[in-house]
Amino acid sequence: MPLPGLRAVGPGGGVRLRLSRGSDVVTTIEPAARKAAFTALGDDEGAAVALDASTGDLLAVVSTPSYDPAGFSGRLPADAEAWRGLNQDSRRPLRDRALRDATAPGGTLDVVIAAAALEHGLYRSADEPTRTGGSGDCAGASIRTALANACGDVFAAMADALGTGKVRETARAFGFDDRELFVPLRTASSTYGPDGTSTATPLQMARVAAALADGGRLAPPRLVAQVEKPAVRAVSERTAAALLTAVRAADMWVPAEDEDGTPLSWSLAYARADDGRRVALAARITHADPAAAARVTRRMAVALT
After folding, report:
1. Is pTM beyond 0.90 here?
2. What is the mean pLDDT of the chain?
C-alpha cells in the first residue's frame, strides 16, 4: 500500500505526506519498519502491521503485491492502460490486505479464546493444566504450553466449554465487530459471529497483541499524529500479563485457509523499539509454509531495534 510523497521528519521516525494543495500531514509511519515489511513480504500476497501498543500509532501498514500510483496519475492513454492493468491483475494489487481484508485468523484467535478463559474464570492462570481437548504433547497442556505448541484442539475445546457468548464478549473487547473503526481511513470489520466463526484483518490481530503489551489497554489505531479517542480496557492487567509471555513464546500459529481454500500463514509478535516503545507486530501471507509470516515480523522487529 504505497504512500507517495513521504519523507521522514525527526530522528525517531514519522513521515510527512505532501498533499496536492501544498499542505502537509504528519503521519505515524516509520520508514524503516515499512521498508522491512515490504522487503520481507516480497512478491507474496500478504500484509503486515506494526502498532505502537501505548499510543496506537501505526508504524507500518503494508500490503503486497503493491503498485506505483505515479503510473496512472496522469491523463495520457498510458495512464488509462496502467489503471486497467491493475484492475485486471489476478493478484489484486489494489486490495488493501492490511486494513480492508478480513480472513480466517487461524491459530491467532487462540489468544482471544485464552483471554476469555482467564477473564471468565475457566482457568486461574496460564500455567494451570487444561481439562479438555488435545492429544499427545497437547493433552492437558496449560494455556502457555498450548499456545507455544499450536494446540488448536485445546482451544477449540476451551471455546466450547466457555460458550460462544463469553468468547464473543472478549473478542468484542479486543475490537472485533467494530464497524466504525477509522485510522482515519475506514477499516474492514473483523468479526466473531454467533456461531463462533471469525474473520480478522492484520490490523485487528495487531490490536490484540498490542492490548496484551499495554497491560490490557486498547488504544485506537491512528495513521495521523494527532490526539483522538482515549484507550479502553480490553482485558484485565492480570490476563494481559499472563498471556503476554505466553504469546511471546509462540513462534508458530495454526494455519488458516481463505474462503477459496488458499493457505494462510499468520504471525503475532512483539518488539522493543530502540527508544523503549512496545510495538505489536502482525503479518499474514498467502503461503503454504506456516512459518512464512513469522519471517516478516522478525524482519520488522529488527528494523525497529
Report:
1. no
2. 86
Is residue 167 assigned to a domain?
Answer: yes
Write the single-letter amino acid at 189: S
Question: Of 227, 194, 265, nearest to 55 (Cα)?
Answer: 227
Label residues 164-187 b or e (16+ Cβ within 10 Å = b).
bebbbebbebbbbeeeebebeeeb
Q: Which domain holds residue 93?
A: 6-304
Q: Scanning the structure block, which residue is given the C-alpha cell 492484520?
A: 202
Compute the CA torsion angle 63, 257, 132, 234 (nearest 10 deg). 30
> 92 lies in a domain?
yes
pLDDT digits (tens, 9 = 90+) for 41-57: 998 999 999 999 999 99
What confidence tens digit (pLDDT) does each residue in 165-184 have?
A: 999 999 999 999 999 999 98
69, with CB counted inside 10 A (0-12, 13-18, 19+), is middle
Q: Check: CB of residue 224 under 8 Å from CB of residue 27.
A: yes
Number of structural domains (the chain) is 1
